[in-house]
Amino acid sequence: MTNESFKSGFVSIIGRPNVGKSTFLNRVIGQKIAIMSDKPQTTRNKVQGVLTTGTSQTIFIDTPGIHKPKHKLGDFMMKVAQNTLKEVDLILFMINAEEGYGKGDEFIIEKLQNTSTPVFLIVNKIDKIHPDQLLLLIDEYRGRYPFKEIVPISALEGNNIETLLAQIEAYLPEGPQFYPSDQVTDHPERFIISELIREKVLHLTREEIPHSIAVSIESIKGQDNGSVHVAATIVVERDSQKGIVIGKKGSLLKEVGKRARADIEALLGSRVYLELWVKVQKDWRNKMSQLRDFGFKEDEY
Ligand SMILES: Nc1nc2c(ncn2[C@@H]2O[C@H](COP(=O)(O)OP(=O)(O)OP(=O)(O)O)[C@@H](O)[C@H]2O)c(=O)[nH]1
Ligand SMILES: [Mg+2]
């Protein structure tokens, strides 16, 4: 890059679970790199998405929703979210316009008091509320923290995203292009594939299952005919959960496979043969050794 005024920087997206952080990231990147669901605590690890324009490169960091941890995995998720507050150029604190100010936000604002990084308040899901309600909500938050900008958006419908991107660019420092223009994430395909499979299980199951699963990719092999063979294991905590994930005569697992295969084919741009297994590993969320096996490595963050 010879252009001296090129800007680049890191922007972290934080907020309570389920406010739409991952939906926003995917919308901005224009490709699905972070999984989304209507269940809280969908995102477990940070996901970086890279947006390159003619004048700037922004690396967005999607983080797990901030909540009170109940197990080691939860502790890990909170550390990931909090560590991303350090060494970024801008923080986007996202809230759900439908919910008012709550304890969770209070906790996040406390954390923000310790940083000198500029913070935007992003009011998401404005498609769900009346404009009058929006003004009241903004007033409620404005007094609690010196936000540099307050930007209402709908990540789902795309409202006001371009305006927000322009405001973000204004806050980025001059800097080099860190990633090639066509690279949209720094995550290996392996990770995204395991996440896409996990997302389908989240969508097709209820209650305790979504939080009890992990997906591990055993192998990804290109075939002579140009297709790709993926073998993956869905890990659950109890035998009863294994039964649920497999479903009657294997019906649920089959549906997971069908939906995940379609997404993985879109990601890889080739035909995919997906082989899925289900395995029980008791209480894996509380075992550090198993968390590491599933790629939750603290020292990387
Ligand atoms: N109506 C509406 N729904 C939205 C909007 N943005 C996200 N959602 C929905 O909100 C739910 C949660 O979205 P996610 O993107 O998974 O939320 P998240 O903040 O990443 O959640 P965690 O990873 O659990 O912290 C999904 O069902 C989305 O479709 C929006 O602008 N409007
Ligand atoms: Mg998320």
TrEMBL record:
GO terms classed as biological process: ribosomal small subunit assembly
InterPro entries: G_ERA_dom, GTP-bd, GTPase_Era-like, KH_dom-like_a/b, KH_dom_type_2, KH_sf_prok-type, P-loop_NTPase, Small_GTP-bd
Gene3D superfamilies: 3.30.300.20, P-loop containing nucleotide triphosphate hydrolases
Pfam families: KH_2, MMR_HSR1
CDD domains: Era, KH-II_Era
Keywords, sorted A to Z: Cell membrane, Cytoplasm, GTP-binding, Membrane, Nucleotide-binding, Ribosome biogenesis, RNA-binding, rRNA-binding
Domain Era-type G: 7-174
Ranges where the record places region G2: 41-45
Spans annotated as G4: 124-127
Span list, region G3: 62-65
Domain of life: Bacteria
Segments for region (G1): 15-22
Molecular function terms from GO: GTP binding; GTPase activity; ribosomal small subunit binding; small ribosomal subunit rRNA binding
PROSITE patterns: G_ERA (PS51713), KH_TYPE_2 (PS50823)
Region ranges (G5): 153-155
Homology family: Belongs to the TRAFAC class TrmE-Era-EngA-EngB-Septin-like GTPase superfamily. Era GTPase family.
Record-given protein name: GTPase Era
Protein source organism: Bacillus halotolerans
Source organism phylogeny: Bacteria, Bacillati, Bacillota, Bacilli, Bacillales
Name of the gene encoding the protein in the UniProt record: era
